[in-house]
Amino acid sequence: MENVQETKAKRKSPVLLIVVLTAVLVIGAGAVSAFFLFNKSPKVKYLLAETKTFTQVGDLFEERYKNEVDWLNVQKAKPVETTYDLSAEWDDPSAGYDMVEMQRILNNTIFSMTQVKDPVEKEWEMNFRGKFGSVSSEFVTLYFTPEKMMAALPFTDKLLFFMDEDFGKMMRETDAFYEGPEKLGLSRLFEEQFSMDGEFQKYVKEEYMEYLYHELPEDAFTSEKEEIDVFGKKMKTEKVNMNLSEEQVKSLLVDLFKKARDDEKLKALLKEQIAFSTMTDDVSDQKLTELIGDFEDSMDEAIKEVNGWHIPNGIESTIWHKSNSIVKREFAMSIGETQGEIATLKFEGVQLLEKTGQKWDYSFTGTDPQMQEEKIVNFKGDLTWKDGKSDDTITINAEDVSITYKGKEELNGKDRTFNREIAVADEGFSPKLVWSGKAAHEKDSMKADHEFTIIDPSEAISTSDIYFRLKQEGKIVKKVEMPDESKNAVNIGKMNSDEMDDLGEELAREFEKWVTELMGDLQSELENF
């Protein structure tokens, strides 16, 4: 019975994916197509306003954080070295002897990671190390290319590596029952498509946005001029309604499921995304075939079931926009498998997206078909950005729980200072995370200092006495310094199980000796404090 339920859950998930995908596209994730420019029907006005508003949000973010966005783009085009140093400071005068020892250890410990990544030559070095007082130690240095992975360990002069194509064989030597992928998928580390981007996203935007444009019935849309109040301002807007009847919603979903089921390119791209999500080149061809089969079965199941769904009021969506920027919206939809199990979702609110600030106030109301009670979530925001300074507040209120974000920033040329706080209030539980610091971004380098602390008034010992610090530095370099593979390189991907056992025993002895010496150094360092 459990397996049957599990199978059903797996098969329903692609249906949810398509429904969510549809909603995202309708609400503006798609690109503006050429036909929008020549057709100003109510339907086009609705979709154009959604699309333009979505783009506007992205543009406002990129403008505010242009320095950071530019640095991200540098890392996509040139080899960059980035170093992270994590440390802490604990100062509690009332701490006992044991806590004093802990404070000394914490205050004198630094964990560091340095990476050098070349997106063009597709080489990547990652070094992990630590420092306690004057004692420094390397932990491991990893090297990646699309074809191989290498590891340099501090307790041996051997350079261990394996080819990606030998990953499956290597795993079977350590586990006779291994049935995973033949390749680890190292090439994925150098792909921007690693997170639902690239060709998949482009195809879905273009193919399904245009599909929805043509399939949405013209008579479901109406528009009229209307003056409304937005945060105390009278505003002349265009009101556009989209009212899809129950029959129209069902027809649209059935056609969408059929299109997705028969879309060979979509299924091929989904295969790639499954591989990306597991960072493997092949989850195994058989497994991928099974997953796509499940996807097709889910579409068939949805096509059969959708006509039995109850959507009593269809979809009712209204937007008010000024110059294609949405300033108010209302949305409502009820759906259930039976008339007695109807779940309802409503959201409504207003928003202003201006260069000097953005404000919104939305309420989400959901009716639970089991409990027959409404649950309301309120989502408010007030962001200001003027003369390089910001003062932001965002709140989420749901029943007895409240989450508040407050942030202040100041940008002076390439230098940004900031203080950000996230507070949670839930009856007697009210912790607050404080993140403050400064950052400087140049064309070829960046530096940032971050400080984190947690404040909880309910704690007997205030955690505000503990500060975690993260120091970050980045700079453009000429290249990644890859190791010399002609010296002591050991290909563990070609070893049999006996050879791997012998190597493991040798490394274990060297590791034990290294740890013993390191612990002795650390003990001596601690005694000198």
Question: Secondary structure elements and their pairing?
Answer:
Layout: H1 2-29, H2 42-64, H3 66-77, E1 80-90, H4 97-107, E2 109-118, E3 123-132, E4 135-144, E5 148-152, E6 159-163, H5 167-174, H6 198-215, E7 221-230, E8 233-244, H7 246-262, H8 264-278, H9 285-306, E9 315-322, E10 325-335, E11 343-354, E12 357-368, E13 373-386, E14 389-398, E15 401-412, E16 415-426, E17 432-441, E18 445-455, E19 466-476, E20 489-491, H10 497-527
Helix pairs in contact: 1-2, 1-6, 1-9, 6-8, 7-9
Folded structure, characterized:
By secondary structure, this protein is of the alpha+beta class. It contains 10 helices and 20 strands. It has helices at 2-29, 42-64, 66-77, 97-107, 167-174, 198-215, 246-262, 264-278, 285-306, 497-527; strands at 80-90, 109-118, 123-132, 135-144, 148-152, 159-163, 221-230, 233-244, 315-322, 325-335, 343-354, 357-368, 373-386, 389-398, 401-412, 415-426, 432-441, 445-455, 466-476, 489-491. The chain has a 20-stranded mixed β-sheet. Strand 2 and strand 3 form a beta hairpin. The longest helix has 31 residues, at 497-527. Mean pLDDT is 86; it is low at 1-37.
Care to give the gist of this entry?
The chain is an alpha+beta fold and 529 residues long.
